[in-house]
Structures are given as structure tokens and as C-alpha cells.
Design brief:
The chain is α+β, with helices and mostly antiparallel strands. Helix content is about 35%, strand content about 30%. It contains 13 helices and 15 strands. α5 packs across α6, α7 crosses α12 and α8 packs across α9.
């Protein structure tokens, strides 16, 4: 115990709920915070999540005078270690009151747990992996996060830097005003691309046959993102589980798939920004909040573009432009006002240019930190 702060492992169901509900203390008066659904956080942390079939974790809660003042998770993803040949563990789900001593104790505890497990580096925040919510918000604190993007108080930046964590990678988010997208310019470029690639067709994702379409999406994802920083191939079980959870939220006509000679080679997936709705539910699922959800989901005016790519052998042929054009048309048909393209790696210049071609403006930045153990 340091400075009256006690950090303990989460072992009981009661302590798990303490861990899950702690953020409500941090963000009580923050107008931009979007409370997560308690049910969803429980599922992410539960052994039912297929991620934990190749990963392990330890949750910690910090208390002072018997009251919770912070939380953190130490995470080891064995698939990440195998793929990158790097003994790096993660920290995630970090939250703390505005007291550096609390943050320091939490980070020390996660670091020591990872060290005992043979890790040589600690990176984060990851909640819980690079295929989930990633990074600490470092720029763009004047608006709420979009779905599956992180949000945190500005003073967390100071906590990370004082602890000695250094930047590993920055992630960018671009915001596009859908009505002001340069469709005419894209249409002109698309005509030439179609002429050069007569075997390429753009179709919409087959949501009625989503079970089979998912394998196309997984194959494209694992190929197109393979060389990106932090990439870890999805297992079939993980991808299928996430895709089936996502299906009820997908909107027909907003998910173009590129086919070359009958084979799916690229995709652009947008998702309505359900944070507009969950913000009003305060983490609860009951008859009243479900009614709220059903009512407000019809009024969503923003969306997020989290997945956009073409398999390696078909890149740089202009197929990306065809997907962008069809995606923007779908957004306009759906009546969306804004679309966030996120996240984009700071070293992914091609995707940054694509975001700018869609009229996107860089408006938020996130950072993944790292330190040797």
C-alpha cells in the first residue's frame, strides 16, 4: 500500500461490477462521455468472449479508504506475440481519479504482472486488443466519441508521460460532412478506373446471406491489413462472433463489396454511430432504455467507417476510389450528416489521402504508448 492506495486483483463478481462501474465516478459531469452498456463490458471481459481462448488477463482495482479510485487490466494476447514475435503485453480499461499516485500504482501493478509472465514490453491502452477499442485520446476533446472509439480526460496524457510511457503509434480520425463530399470528382475518376478494370464490379454486401458473406469479409480483412502496425489475424470464431453481433446494426446499401472476376477483393463497411443512442441509456438495459433505443435509433445522423481495404494483389488499381464513391452515395441515401473514418495509422499515407478525397478533415488523434518492462 502506497500513500493509502491499495491495488487488489479482481476475484469476485462483486469486485467485477466495481471494476465495470468505476468510470461513472470519473465522468460524472462530463458532457461528452458515452456510458458503455454494462452488459457489453461484462461480455467483453467474460470467458465467453472467444478472444480469451488465446489471451489471458488480470483485472485490478485501486482503493483508498475502502473506496474505488481507479482500475486497470493487464492483458497478454498470445496470437499477437506469435504473429509479431514480440513479448509485448498490454494494459487496458484504464481509468483513474485525477491523482497521479493512483495511476502510477495501477500501471506498476499491471507492469509487474506482465513481467512475471515473461513479457518484455507493456503497450496500451488496448481494450482488450488491437481489434477492439485502441489508444488514448490526445486531441479532440470537444465532442463525444463515435461507436467503438475511446474517450478519456485530458489529464490521462500527463499520467502516461509522467510514468515514462513513450509514443508507439498515433491513430487518426477524420470527419466527413456527407452532403459536402466531392462526388463529381470521384465520379470522373471512377469512369476511368472502370475502363481500366472491366472485370471489377461493386455490389452491396448480402446481409440476407451474412453468414456466408462474413467469410469474404474476414478473408479480405486478414489479407489487406496484414502489413499494418498492430495487426493480428482474426480467428474464425472471433470474427464470426463479432460479425453476428454487428449484423443487426448494419444498414443495407451502405456496405459496398468490390469483386474482381467474381471474387470479393475489397470492402467498405460503415456502421451507424449508435453512441448517439447509448449515451441516453446510461449503461442500462431494461424495458425503458430498450424503448429509448428503438426510438432514437431511427434518428441517428452520424456513422463510422471502421473497415476499408482491398487485398494486396488488387491494391493501387483505383478499386478504393470505386468503393469510396459507392460508400458516400450510400451515406447520402441513408440521410447521414457526418461520417467518421477511424482509425487511420499515422504512417498509412494512402488511407489518409483516401480520407481527404472523401472530404475528411483530421479532427481527433489517439495514441498507443509503450515502455520496456
Amino acid at each position: 500500500m502506497a500513500g493509502g492506495i491499495e491495488v487488489k486483483e479482481v476475484k469476485t463478481k462483486k469486485e467485477l461490477m466495481e471494476f465495470i462501474k468505476f468510470p461513472w465516478k470519473v465522468y460524472e459531469n462530463d458532457p461528452y462521455w458515452v456510458p458503455p452498456l454494462v452488459r457489453d463490458v461484462k461480455l467483453i471481459l467474460s470467458e465467453k468472449s472467444p478472444f480469451w481462448h488465446h489471451a489471458e488477463k488480470q483485472l485490478f482495482v485501486a482503493r483508498r479508504d475502502g473506496k474505488s479510485v481507479g482500475r486497470i487490466a493487464a492483458i497478454i494476447d498470445h496470437n499477437y506475440i506469435d504473429f509479431h514475435e514480440e513479448k509485448a503485453g498490454f494494459f487496458g480499461f484504464f481509468e483513474s481519479i485525477q491523482d497521479y499516485a493512483v495511476a502510477e500504482n495501477l500501471l506498476n501493478e499491471a507492469r509487474e504482472w506482465l513481467r512475471e509472465k515473461g513479457m518484455e514490453k507493456m503497450a496500451g491502452p488496448m481494450n482488450p486488443s488491437t481489434n477492439d477499442e485502441v489508444g488514448l485520446l490526445i486531441q479532440g476533446f470537444d465532442s463525444s466519441p463515435y461507436i467503438l472509439m475511446t474517450y478519456n480526460p485530458k489529464h490521462y496524457i500527463d499520467f502516461m508521460e509522467r510514468y515514462g510511457l513513450a509514443k508507439r503509434m498515433d491513430l487518426f480520425a477524420y470527419l466527413t460532412e456527407v452532403d459536402k463530399c466531392p462526388l463529381e470528382e470521384l465520379e470522373k475518376a471512377a469512369e476511368k478506373i472502370r475502363e481500366r478494370n472491366p472485370g471489377v464490379k461493386i455490389r452491396q454486401a448480402r446481409l440476407k446471406d451474412w453468414k456466408n458473406e462474413v467469410e469474404n469479409v474476414r478473408r479480405i480483412y486478414n489479407n489487406a491489413w496484414e502489413k499494418n502496425w498492430g495487426f493480428v489475424p482474426w480467428t474464425k470464431e472471433e470474427f464470426y462472433t463479432e460479425a453476428m453481433k454487428l449484423k443487426p446494426f448494419l444498414v443495407p446499401g451502405t456496405i459496398p463489396i468490390a469483386e474482381a472476376d467474381g471474387k470479393a477483393v475489397g470492402m467498405l463497411i460503415t456502421v451507424p454511430n449508435y453512441n448517439e443512442v447509448t449515451k441516453k441509456m446510461n449503461g442500462k438495459m431494461n424495458p425503458w432504455t430498450i424503448l429509448k433505443f428503438l426510438w432514437y435509433r431511427k434518428k441517428i445522423t452520424t456513422q463510422r467507417l471502421p473497415i476499408f481495404g482491398v487485398i494486396k494483389e488488387y491494391q493501387k488499381r483505383g478499386i478504393e476510389t470505386l468503393l469510396m464513391l459507392e460508400g458516400l452515395k450510400g451515406s447520402q441515401r441513408g440521410g447521414y450528416k457526418y461520417c467518421e473514418l477511424s482509425w487511420v495509422l499515422e504512417d498509412n499515407i494512402l488511407t489518409q489521402r483516401a480520407a481527404e478525397l472523401m472530404g475528411g478533415k483530421l479532427y481527433k488523434k489517439y495514441r498507443v504508448y509503450e515502455t520496456n518492462i
